[in-house]
Write a structure and sequence with these properties.
The protein is of the alpha+beta class. Helices cover 12% and strands 12% of the residues. The protein has one domain: BB2672 (60s Ribosomal Protein L30, Chain: A, 2-Layer Sandwich).
């Protein structure tokens, strides 16, 4: 499943050389999960480090899984975390 969903996500966001950040959590109905975010082409662009809290109020039920995918169209406003800027990145190796 990971390979298929990663490939599909990369096609949807055009390129996506960086690793797709992920999190796993076990919980009951209405539990929350923080889905990590990062730049799609360069992991060292820290302005895009963030997370989206996701909750499905009536899931997961018995024998169900909840799969969450979050994307954003930009980084944090006024980032102060250092690292590469989007203008400095190369975007070929998934890191820089």
């Amino acid at each position: 499943m990971q390979q298929r969903s990663g490939r599909t996500l990369r096609q949807a966001v055009e390129k996506g050389a960086a690793l797709v950040p992920s999190a796993k959590k076990q919980g009951g109905v209405g539990g929350t999960i923080d889905v990590p975010l990062g730049h799609k082409d360069a992991a060292y662009v820290r302005s895009h480090f963030d997370a989206q809290e996701v909750r499905v109020s009536d899931a997961p039920r018995a024998n169900e899984l909840v799969v969450c995918v979050t994307v954003t169209d930009s980084g944090r406003p006024l980032p102060r975390v250092g690292g590469l800027t989007t203008g400095e990145m190369i975007g070929e190796d998934g890191l820089r």
